[in-house]
Amino acid sequence: MTTNVKHLDANILIVDDQPTNVKLLQRMLEGSGFNNISTTTDSREVSALYQNNRFDLVLLDINMPHLNGFEVMAELAAVERDSYLPILVLTAQTDNETRLRALDLGAKDFLTKPFDRVEVLTRIRNMLEVRLLHNQVRDQNKILEEKVQIRTKELLDTRLEIIRRLGRAAEYRDNETGFHIIRMSKFAQSIGRSYGMSDYDAEILLHASPMHDIGKIGIPDRILLKPGQLNEEEWEIMKTHAIIGAEILSGHNSDLIETARIIALTHHERWDGTGYPNKLAGKDIPLVGRIVAICDVFDALTSERPYKRPWSIEEALKYIEENAGKHFDPDVVTIFLHVLPDILKVKEQYEEPTRDSAVVFPMQIQKA
Q1: What are the start-end ranges of the H helices in the chain?
Q2: 3-class SS at 109?
Q3: Does a structural domain hold residue 102?
């Protein structure tokens, strides 16, 4: 009988309380070239041996002291996550009840005592062939799954990069730097986590908030880039960037895009109902909008712009505390102050590049 060379390296365990049966099977296997054989006459050792070695085949007796073969199979089924129990049952019993119970517990084939050498080697060879094919399919599936995960991550990273660049496009058109959206989005994530958001929701907030001002793309240059104060009519047009942003981001049901839409629409609403575009008040303003509002304002106040000096941290904190219950959700202000050390670390890490003091960009103050 020809045996696949790969089968000869198979990791085989023989379990039988009768040492003579163990020796007989071991000699049969070794005489046919198998070279990786373990044995035990104590059924209580099988589970630990299997966990440590993950045998390709277990030759398992049914009638044993301590734990019988059925109990051993139940233990192995609990630890085998591969869903394939490579068990070849050794039994002198030929009744259907025994066989059906063994099959139900995961046995794949039977060897009837007394053993016939040809039958033993044939059944072992057949089981190892199935085991080898099973392992190949399992390994191929694992490789495919890893490739899918890598590709999915690449697609996600690409999507997030596009989102960040869209946010930067709006900022650059407004003569801001890309560092503003990095800082404020990380501020928002930190506040969200401390507020009680799940890691998933806080990460969505991190990636959605850079698009908060995407609607500025739709504001005419004569208004967006006008030096000095806007008149009343111009200011009303400027405020429409919240609605424009929400429209740009509408129509997609992903958590990320929907959160970005809500932020774009509501981050200029104020706790006291005097904000825009819908004059929402209190907790009628979605939480993500309330969080981004304070992050956007704090970073704008403490950042240098061509039209203003940066406020000190103390000045900005005083403004935020004074506007708790007016502009800002008081609870979010409390959380903001709690995570302030983290926010200041982010601010330091993503500090604005040095500006050429001779370069002055046209910008009106009130739209910040």
Answers
A1: 5-8, 19-31, 46-53, 69-79, 96-104, 117-173, 178-195, 199-208, 221-224, 232-239, 241-248, 255-266, 287-301, 313-322, 330-338, 340-349
A2: strand
A3: yes
Q: Which domain holds residue 267?
A: 174-349
What is the spatial distance between Cα 251 and Cα 260, in angstroms, rounded to a whole number?
12
At 341, which CATH number?
1.10.3210.10
pLDDT in tens, 62-104: 889 989 888 988 888 888 766 677 888 887 777 777 778 877 7
Cβ(120)–Cβ(89) below 8 Å: no
61 has which bridge partners? 90
> What is the value of pTM for the model shown?
0.59
The Cα 181–Cα 211 span in angstroms is: 8
Place of tokens 């601010």: 347
Paired with 328 in beta bridges are: 324
Same-domain pairing of 182 and 68:
no
* pLDDT per residue as tens digits for the range 133-162: 877 787 788 888 888 888 877 777 777 777
Q: Does 99 share its domain with 205? A: no
Q: Are residues 131 and 249 in the same domain?
A: no
Residue 341 lies in a domain: yes
Dihedral angle, C-alpha 96, 98, 101, 103, nearest 10 °: -80
Number of domains in the chain: 2
Which amino acid, one-letter code, is at 123?
R
- The answer to whether position 161 is within a domain reads no
**Residue 212 structure tokens:** 């908060």
Copy the structure tokens of residue 70.
Answer: 């059925």
Is residue 91 located within the same domain as residue 218? Answer: no
What's the pLDDT at 366?
A: 38
193 falls within a domain: yes
On whether both 35 and 136 belong to a single domain, the answer is: yes
Q: Tell me the Ramachandran region of residue 94: left when phi exceeds 0, alpha when psi lies from -120 to 50, beta otherwise.
A: alpha
Segment 247-251 long-range contacts (CB within 8 Å, at least 24 positions apart): 247/215, 248/214, 248/215, 248/217, 248/218, 249/211, 249/214
